[in-house]
Design goal:
By secondary structure, the protein is an all-alpha fold. It is built from 15 helices and 2 strands. The chain has a two-stranded antiparallel sheet with strand order 1-2. Strand 1 and strand 2 form a beta hairpin. Helix 3 runs antiparallel to helix 4 and helix 5 packs across helix 9. The longest helix has about 30 residues. It is rod-shaped, with a radius of gyration of 33 Å.
Length: about 300
């Protein structure tokens, strides 16, 4: 304290009391976060005893990353620490999400050895808004299903509601999967192949066929194929024909084969895997071996 009986403190005394550099205290004073209570006859800034805890508060808020404007408002009583903290948490959440997106893009670029053009595209896709991501999904669905009214509605429903959006706090893996998923949904070749799958379904499905029948048929066929493999039945063995007939009846094996090959394409399997990755769930079983057995059994009886 100065020796004039007022109990006021100089900047130097505040510095010694708090351990903060004089230049820091002077700067905070200049920007209005810690205004002096008065000045000495020589023009030096003077502070009261309450300036010490205020200075400690300023230091704490600055160490937590708050800007000087917010700090000044808290010290002046214009807002509370809790209110400023809540705003700052929201800003930090946005920064963290942005950093996760940046890390995911850079990780993918490093893994793929991407070109400058690919890097730009991935960065754009990763930073799309929720509305922009929804537009990609809607556009993909329209090109896949429009005009195919006889297709099994369960296929449309499962696909439409199966495509997830990024969560509010995505992992690097989820961002990475979304980028690849968005690329796939915008690929004209993939869209054409997905539409071809739906066209196969719509071509021979009558209006009285219950919804979900197509999915049940495929599931049942793969299940029986898996059981046949476990019993050691080869796809070209006579017993394999019985397995096919149990589900397919007298349906044209060539048509079924075309549908199975279309549904089993590697891109479609990767598409389903990416959906699970974005959702943060375990991918559904692909039953690749059973699927391959069905295709081989159909080819053995279709002349393909």
């Amino acid at each position: 304290m100065i020796d004039d009986g007022t109990g006021l403190l100089t900047i130097g005394q505040l510095s010694r009391s708090t351990g903060l550099p004089v230049r820091t205290i002077r700067y905070w004073s200049d920007v209005g976060a810690l205004p002096p209570v008065t000045r000495s006859e020589g023009g030096y800034r003077l502070y009261d005893a309450g300036s010490v805890p205020r200075l400690e508060l300023i230091r704490t808020l600055r160490e937590l990353g708050l800007g000087l404007d917010d700090v000044r408002r808290v010290v002046a009583g214009e807002t509370t620490v809790a209110e400023v903290a809540a705003t700052h948490v929201a800003a930090l959440d946005a920064q963290i999400r942005s950093l996760k997106v940046t890390r995911a893009v850079l990780s993918t670029v490093a893994r793929r050895g991407s070109t400058a053009e690919e890097t730009t595209l991935m960065n754009r896709l990763a930073r799309l808004s929720a509305a922009e991501r929804k537009h990609i999904v809607d556009d993909f669905m329209a090109e896949t299903f429009d005009g195919l009214d006889t297709a099994d509605p369960d296929i449309r429903t499962r696909l439409r509601f199966g495509v997830p959006d990024l969560p509010d706090d995505p992992t690097t893996e989820q961002v990475d999967a979304w980028v690849e998923l968005a690329e796939l949904m915008q690929d004209t070749g993939f869209r054409a192949r997905m539409r071809s799958m739906v066209e196969f379904n719509a071509a021979d499905r009558g209006p009285d066929v219950p919804a979900g029948t197509s999915l049940w048929l495929m599931s049942r066929l793969v299940q029986l194929a898996g059981e046949a493999r476990e019993r050691g039945i080869a796809p070209d063995a006579p017993e394999a024909a019985t397995v096919l007939t149990e589900v397919l009846g007298d349906a044209d094996r060539t048509v079924v084969l075309d549908r199975m090959v279309s549904a089993g394409q590697a891109e479609a399997a990767r598409f389903r895997e990416l959906l699970a990755l974005v959702r943060g769930t375990e991918p559904l079983p692909t039953h690749r071996e059973a699927f391959a057995w069905v295709v081989a059994a159909l080819r053995a009886r279709s002349g393909s």
